[in-house]
Write a structure and sequence with these properties.
Layout (H helix, E strand, L loop, with lengths): L1 H15 L2 H9 L3 E20 L12 E5 L2 E5 L1 H11 L8 E4 L10 E5 L6 E4 L2 E5 L4 H9 L3 E5 L2 E8 L2 E6 L8 E20 L1 H39 L1
Parallel strand pairs: 5-11
Antiparallel strand pairs: 1-2, 1-11, 2-3, 3-10, 4-7, 5-6, 6-10, 7-9, 8-9
Helix pairs in contact: 1-5, 2-5
Length: 238
């Protein structure tokens, strides 16, 4: 029992080492990151289609978001989720909205590329919205995983989804299985993360690090005997 408590005391003292130094560098971190959004192109998505047969670019069952310039082909796994929603047989088209408390209509569908020049994309903050007060529609929406949201003294139904896939220049024409109430702009972009070093903070940290290391070492040296003594006294009492 004495060994266990002494070991715990040593561990606690070890964790104290470099505490002040880590705090200094954490509170005055000279390195920062900026994420820049780089625009690639825009398009207007007017419909969804489902690929009936495999071909060189499209897998059977893939969901295609059809635009004037590009077709955004969703991977089969995500297609299965989305196809069930879009073929639910409801009276009105879904709205594509933002993942915000107001669920306002998307200004543009975010199509984020993995990297510059990549065909791989993902959607971020994509939600579907349906407004209805019909019990049959509400039951169907709940089966599809939609949640009721109170908005402006009425109830709307939303479900946020994510999708990944590839985009291509428009291939051979396919029949559209689902049309949006209005065309949805698509914003194609990628992001660049850059690190920046604040030289003044860096030099200040370097300047103050030696004194802080001394304080850390002293704190550990002082804390260890006290902690170990406490463990010994506690064991002696038992």
């Amino acid at each position: 029992m004495l060994f266990r408590k002494t070991t715990a005391a040593v561990l606690a003292a070890t964790l104290m080492l470099n505490g002040c130094t880590l705090m200094l560098w954490g509170m005055n971190n000279p390195v920062s990151e900026t994420i820049t959004r780089k625009h690639v192109d825009k398009d207007q998505i007017r419909a969804f289609g489902v690929v009936a047969e495999d071909n060189a670019q499209l897998e059977k069952g893939s969901l295609v978001m059809m635009g004037g310039k590009y077709w955004f082909v969703v991977n089969p796994e995500d297609s299965a989720k989305l196809t069930g929603i879009l073929k639910a047989g409801l009276d009105k088209p879904f709205q594509i909205v933002e993942d915000t408390p107001s669920y306002a209509r998307h200004q543009a569908l975010p199509v984020k590329l993995e990297s510059p020049g990549s065909q791989n994309f993902s959607t971020e903050g994509l939600c579907l919205r349906y407004d209805t007060d019909k019990p049959a529609d509400i039951a169907k929406l709940k089966q599809l995983g939609f949640e009721a949201v109170k908005l402006d003294n009425r109830t709307i139904y939303t479900r946020c989804v994510s999708a990944k896939g590839k985009y291509y220049a428009t291939p051979q024409k396919l029949n559209a299985d689902y049309h949006f109430e209005q065309s949805v702009p698509a914003d194609i972009y990628y992001t660049v993360t850059e690190e920046h070093t604040d030289k003044s903070k860096l030099f200040a940290n370097i300047l103050y690090t030696p004194p802080f290391l001394i304080l850390d070492a002293a704190g550990a040296v002082l804390a260890l005997p006290a902690a170990a003594l406490g463990a010994v006294v506690d064991a002696a009492r038992k």
